[in-house]
Amino acid sequence: MRRGALLAISALLAALSVRASEIPPDQRRSGYSFMSSDTKAMQDDDTANPAMLSVLDGEALWTTKAGVADKACSDCHGDAAGSMKGVAARYPAFDAVSGAPVDLGQRINLCRRDHQQASPFPPESRELLALSAFVARQSRGMPITAGDDPQLKPFVARGRELYTQRQGQLNLACTNCHDDNWDKHLAGSAVTQGQPTGYPIYRLEWQGMGSLQRRLRGCMTGVRAQAFDFDAPDMIALELYLMSRARGMPMDAPAVRP
Amino acid sequence: MAAALVNVPAKAKRGAVIEIKTLMSHVMEPGYRHTAAGEVVPRDIVTSFTCKFNGAEIFRADLFPAIAANPFLSFFTTASESGRFEFEWIGDNGFVANASAAITVE
To answer: Which residues pair with B98 in a beta bridge?
Structure first.
């Protein structure tokens, strides 16, 4: 009897912690599954995937010495195939120095500042995207683990708050499209669930590479809201929530998206 | 940072039709855009692509503005003998990039 009551309470708690509109884990779908067969073929073939050009650039940068310290990434981290395996899958991660999460691009720039004593790459620069793509490539096929660190809990909660908060002249929250209407279309395009499995991506609309931050800013502009600045704490919190929401899904970076 | 991705089958049967796929990293500037001050942004594109097999030209393409950034070209040829494909991209502002790939024909 008591055991039955406990089970009932825990089932109730589980139901309360998952809102009705949230996508059940078994129904989560990567943006890849919404794409046309042509675009899928482009992503699947490493010699046709334009994002692989960025990966090649990143591979070259990985071994290029930079900064006052005259060190390359590889001088500390060695072969990225081993040392960077699964790293992108757990970012944004908690940074003990700042006491806040940092995303992969920020981590690369922190490394540049602290260990290479070099100037940071600007957001969305070719170099930063190339290194991010090269590092993300090493996690292809691995499950996303971001947000597992208990220290990140308040930041995940903040990200979720932003995700469910209506904003802009169209007064829409992320959740209104990406949880409630992901199976529908907006003009000719699939709405999708907003699972960030493949960043940085080569987006056909951009004819170039871009980060999750750039994509999020695009969405915010779309609902006529003031887009968050690159690397703003709220931007990182939102990235973190999205990654934790996709926990367990396999990475397909560097992805092609329409 | 010029990088090329080339896909040539490593092996093929004699007489077989094979597909060659190439992707060149190049930031296109079509030459049609203007700055805020009204000046034309100079054109910067890949203008020509050549593929040679064992020294003989087998495929050539001339490219023009507004085709694509990072041009992807794919074409077919017949595997006649083992050898080496050499690829060359030429563009504005002295842009030159090369790549090569070997094939074994059995």
So the answer is: B88
pLDDT in tens, A32-66: 999 999 999 999 998 889 999 999 999 999 999 99
A53 touches chain B (CB under 8 A): yes
Residue carrying the six token digits 């960030």: A196
ipTM over 0.85: no
Distance CA B89, CA B87 (A): 7
Catalytic residue list contains A219: yes
Q: From the CA of A45, how many Å to the nearest CA of chain B?
A: 9
Q: What is the DSSP string of A167-228?
A: BTTTTB-HHHHHTTSTTSEETTEE-------S-SEEETTTTEEE-HHHHHHHHHHHTT--PP
User: What is the pTM (predicted TM-score) of this model?
Assistant: 0.84
* Helix pair angle (A233-245, A212-222), 10° resolution: 100
Q: Do B69 and A208 touch (CB under 8 A)?
A: yes
pLDDT of A221 over the 50 cut: yes
Whether a cis peptide bond, with omega within 30° of 0, leads into A200 is yes
Give the gap in angstroms from C-alpha A125 to the nearest C-alpha of chain B: 13
pLDDT at A13: 43
- Cβ atoms of B72 and B93 closer than 8 Å: no
Length of chain B: 106
Q: Which residue has the tokens 């929401």?
A: A245
Considering only alpha carbons, which residue of chain A is nearest residue B4? A53
- A-chain residues within 8 Å CB-CB of B22? 47
Contact between B18 and B8 (Cβ < 8 Å): yes
Q: What is the pLDDT of residues A90-147, one digit of tens each?
A: 999 999 999 999 999 999 999 999 999 999 999 999 999 999 999 999 999 999 999 9
